[in-house]
Design goal:
The structure holds two protein chains of two kinds.
Chain A lengths: L2 E5 L4 H17 L2 E8 L15 H22 L4 E7 L2 H12 L3 E5 L6 H18 L2 E5 L6
Parallel strand pairs in A: 1-2, 1-4, 2-3, 4-5
Helix pairs in contact in A: 3-4
Chain B lengths: L1 H18 L18 E8 L9 E6 L7 E4 L5 E5 L8 E6 L6 E4 L2 H10 L1 E3 L3 E3 L5 H19 L4 H22 L8 H6 L3 H18 L3 H13 L3 H18 L2 H19 L4 H14 L8 H10 L3 H26 L1 H4 L8 H10 L5 H20 L7 H16 L3 H7 L2 H19 L2 H13 L3 H15 L5 H17 L4 H4 L1 H12 L9 H12 L6 H29 L3
Parallel strand pairs in B: 1-7, 1-8
Antiparallel strand pairs in B: 1-4, 2-3, 2-5, 5-6
Helix pairs in contact in B: 1-16, 3-4, 3-18, 4-18, 6-11, 6-16, 7-8, 7-9, 8-9, 8-10, 9-10, 9-14, 9-24, 10-12, 10-24, 11-21, 11-23, 12-25, 15-16, 18-21, 19-21, 20-21, 20-23, 20-25, 21-23, 23-25
Classes of the chains: A alpha/beta, B alpha/beta.
Chain lengths: 145, 572
């Protein structure tokens, strides 16, 4: 049985991506794994002392967000697994794809009409496809990379 | 174990060193003898500010070399004992970098008086500022540093180091060829570093690192969720109160890094927009720190510079802060009124349990000791003034005691001390010292002084709104550091302002509240935004602006109103 890996954050924009992945898993009778990456690169912008383990707090938040996605899948009759990884998004995603043996990676397209964000996402998708050989589908676009 | 003990011993040593009795400072470096005639005087600049470290040379009987020399002390005073009583003529020269030299030859009558009375006191000697190449170098370095910080092109500490390096390069390299490039030497630069601030910040970093790792704030946020039973307005208010108390006593950024993830989960559990909880928390965090000495880095700077203690901030700011908080709560409840009407359909048991698990106390033993030590620290912050115990000593003793009691990994504890922040403070102090040394801040102070005159209400408005609006775009720490000498000068020109220190409180309110203006105005805002984005709820500049600007303007007005009431109308 093939595995679909859906990388998600959990906001309003992600719900559409999650629903798309759930639908795909249903149609293809595939396993579904939701992935959250606790990427704390934004902390490097801080000049104040970061004296607590922020990555762990964000991992906890990710677990909660994925649990919501999992419940959404279960409501649709799809059994889903969750995976939280820490690190830089593109590397953690490639690592997770290899770890779960993904046949397809599902990503969400940024809601905002932001060309930089779109091209950055395209670049990530290309790099992951090249590195893992796994197809990447960006929800909101027509074709898989 | 050995390293922890050594580190604790070091902290105790530092605390004891800081508790040492003040050594009497004397400017007298010449020959001292009770039977010899004495010359004395005061040095000030044209704005009446004392000039320290000026060299005073006394020439006797037309000799080519000075018979005695001394330097002026912090309050601008100087005194020399003259060798022998065989005085024919006396002339005095005063020299200091960045000031015109002063020369005075005593008249025959004055020399006679000196011989007969055994002493002669000059009227206050006023030295005129001199604009040198060093002035322009220091000004350019300071503006360059502010631009680097504002544009985020360099990390703050590196930007400040770059600024002071330019100053030193001008002083020591260019100054070797042309003395006009001189700004200040290393000894003078080090004298500008406020070590009380450095050790207070370091001690608090250790305490905060231990206390906030216990999970207490996440647990409190979860209790707020439970108690509110789905009433969103009540939840917002309770979370604001928790964030406010935490930010008033601890560090704003750390508080929000802990509060934001759990608040986000609570919002999702209730089915509301997470920004309805996060934005009020940001606003509360930036405002509430104003009421205590340790609540914001700017208050630590102001307190150390102006000698304003923990109790002074508490007494003179708390009601103003509460007023501003009420205004802020009204605005956020109106702004998020759509979210308040939403009703939650409830969450699954699994989600509830996950939320509960994420909000549990992580280390009860550490929490217990942290609570005890922190309560003790608060006690000493309050009564410390009567014991002449400065807040940095309390912070160092508290940090040491906590380290000994909870036995944390000392390597980890040394990592939680953010050395880059401490380096930033040190470099910034030296850089502000440089612009003060060359007279740039004096020029700015004069402009401010002319604008405000002796009008206290105008001074309060200018300081609160000026610092507030500048904090929209300029980091408030360098802003406050640069403004301190200016505030001292302006205060001196307003009857009662120097005694009540009202303008320092105005600076404190403005600099902190201004951090609420834009999402980029403060680090608390940026870090919270970073977490919100990680959950798919980015806080856009425009969306934040719609609430940030009105809340800032209204809270600045509330703060101003309080300072009017407390100082301008009732006389403090």
């Amino acid at each position: 049985m093939a595995t679909i890996l859906c990388a998600t954050r959990g906001g309003e924009a992600s719900i559409h991506t999650q629903e798309h992945a759930i639908q795909l898993a249903q149609d293809q009778d595939a396993n579904l794994v939701f992935l959250y990456v606790a990427d704390v690169q934004f902390l490097t912008q801080a000049t104040a002392a970061i004296v607590v383990d922020v990555a762990t707090e964000i991992e906890h938040m990710g677990e909660f967000l994925l649990l919501m996605a999992k419940e959404r899948a279960e409501k649709a009759g799809v059994k889903a697994e969750t995976l939280v990884k820490r690190g830089v998004f593109r590397y953690a995603l490639a690592e997770a794809a290899q770890e779960v043996g993904a046949a397809l990676i599902v990503l969400g397209s940024p809601q905002e009409d932001n060309l930089t964000m779109h091209s950055l996402l395209d670049e990530i998708a290309e790099a992951i496809k090249e590195q893992t050989g796994v197809d990447v589908l960006i929800v909101g676009r027509n074709n898989a990379v | 174990m050995i390293r922890r003990t050594l580190f604790s011993a070091l902290l105790v040593g530092l605390a004891l060193w800081m508790l040492r009795p003040d050594t009497p400072v004397t400017a007298l470096q010449g020959e001292q003898s009770g039977s010899h005639p004495e010359l004395s005087g005061f040095l000030t600049d044209s704005r009446g500010q004392a000039i320290s470290d000026a060299e005073v040379l006394v020439f006797l009987n037309d000799a080519a070399e000075p018979a005695v020399r001394t330097t002026s002390s912090e309050d601008g005073s100087w005194v020399v004992d003259l060798p022998g009583t065989d005085l024919e003529s006396v002339h005095v020269e005063v020299e200091r970098h960045h000031y015109e030299s002063f020369t005075y030859r005593l008249t025959e009558a004055e020399v006679e008086r000196l011989r007969m009375d055994g002493s002669f006191a000059f009227n206050t000697i006023i030295l005129e500022n001199q604009i040198t190449l060093g002035f322009w170098v220091a000004a350019a370095a300071f503006i360059f540093t502010l631009l680097l910080i504002a544009s985020e092109r360099l990390q703050n500490a590196l930007a400040a180091l770059a600024g002071i390096s330019i100053v030193f390069a001008a002083t020591f390299i260019l100054g070797a060829f042309n003395e006009s490039f001189y700004v200040l030497n290393m000894e003078r630069a080090l004298a500008y570093i406020n070590w009380e601030v450095i050790f207070l910040v370091m001690g608090m970093m250790i305490v905060v690192g231990i206390l906030e790792g216990t999970g207490i704030f996440q647990w409190l946020a979860f209790q707020a969720y439970r108690v509110s039973r789905g009433r969103i307005s009540l939840l917002i208010i309770v979370l604001i109160v928790i964030t406010s108390v935490a930010s008033a006593l601890l560090d704003n950024v750390t508080t929000m890094l802990l509060m934001a993830p759990i608040s986000l989960q609570i919002a999702l559990a209730l089915g509301i927009d997470p920004l309805a909880l996060l934005i009020p928390e940001i606003l509360a965090s930036n405002i509430s720190g104003i009421s205590t000495l340790i609540g914001t880095p700017t208050n630590i700077l102001i307190g150390a510079y102006a000698g304003i203690g923990f109790n002074d901030f508490l007494i003179n700011q708390t009601l103003g802060v509460l007023g501003a908080m009420v205004v802020m709560i009204v605005v956020v409840l109106y702004f998020f009124r759509g979210e308040l009407k939403k009703t939650s359909g409830g969450i699954s048991e699994a989600l509830y349990n996950k939320l509960k698990e994420n909000a549990q106390i992580k280390d009860a033993r550490t929490l217990k000791w942290s609570g005890v030590v922190f309560a003790g620290m608060l006690f000493f912050f309050i009564v410390g003034e009567s014991l002449h115990m400065v807040p940095s000593v309390t912070a160092l003793l508290g940090a040491t005691l906590l380290l000994l009691l909870v036995e944390p990994d000392i390597e980890k504890m040394l990592r939680v001390v953010d050395w880059t922040t401490l380096v930033f403070f040190m470099a910034l102090f030296m850089l502000v010292g440089a612009v003060q040394e060359v007279g740039l801040l004096g020029v700015f102070a004069e402009v401010m002084g002319n604008l405000i005159g002796a009008n206290l209400p105008l001074g309060i408005v200018v300081l609160v709104f000026g610092a507030g609006l500048l904090s929209f775009v300029i980091a408030n720490i360098p802003l406050a550091a640069a403004m301190l000498p200016v505030v001292r000068f302006v205060s001196a020109g307003i009857p009662g302002a120097a005694e009540s220190q009202v303008l320092y409180y105005a600076l404190s309110m403005g600099a902190a509240m201004g951090g609420n203006g834009f999402i980029i105005s403060g680090e608390t805002n940026l870090m919270t935004s970073g977490i919100a984005e990680r959950a798919g709820y980015p806080i856009s500049f425009a969306r934040y602006l719609r609430i940030g600007v009105p809340v800032t303007l209204l809270t600045l007005a509330a703060g101003t109103g309080w300072l009017f009431l407390r100082f301008a109308l009732t006389g403090g």
